[in-house]
Amino acid sequence: MRNSRKVLTNPLLFSVLLFHPMLGLAATKDIDGITDGLWKTADCMKVSEHAGVTLYWSGELLKKADAERKKGKEKLSDELNKGAMFFSQLSANAAKNFEVFCKG
Predict the structure, then answer these.
(1) How far apart are CA 50 and CA 87, in angstroms?
(2) Which of 42, 80, 85, 95 has its CA 20 to 30 A from that of 56?
(3) Which long-range contacts (CB under 8 A, 24 or more apart) does 3-11 make?
(4) What is the largest CA-CA distance in the chain?
(5) Per-residue pLDDT of the chain in tens (104 residues, 90 and over written 9)
(6) 17 lies in which domain range?
(7) Are 61 and 84 in contact (CB under 8 A)?
């Protein structure tokens, strides 16, 4: 019971962390060269791109973790899940920085 609970908790927690930064980045697509925030537009675009790339890698690692779990390689799957969580947190941090310093 405890092991199956962990298996369910990881994807659920990851899903929450995965979609939270996406909500903050929804408005970044329309940056037109002027930001009301503290940072220059070019810097804000780099932060936005970083958030997107790290979120992408997080998703890719999650796919690999799921595939490895289906093969019965739970230890490798757990390690890949940790990596996915790491990239997801990087993305969330970048999104928060964007929100604070670029949206103004």
Answers:
(1) 10
(2) 42
(3) 7/69, 10/78, 10/81, 11/62, 11/66
(4) 54
(5) 455 555 555 665 555 555 555 544 555 555 555 546 788 999 999 999 999 999 999 999 999 999 999 999 999 999 999 999 999 999 999 999 999 999 86
(6) 2-23+39-101
(7) yes
* Helices 2-25 and 41-70, axial angle in degrees (round to 10): 160
Place of tokens 């799921």: 66
Distance CA 71, CA 41 (A): 45
Q: Are 11 and 77 in contact (CB under 8 A)?
A: no
How many domains in the chain?
Answer: 1
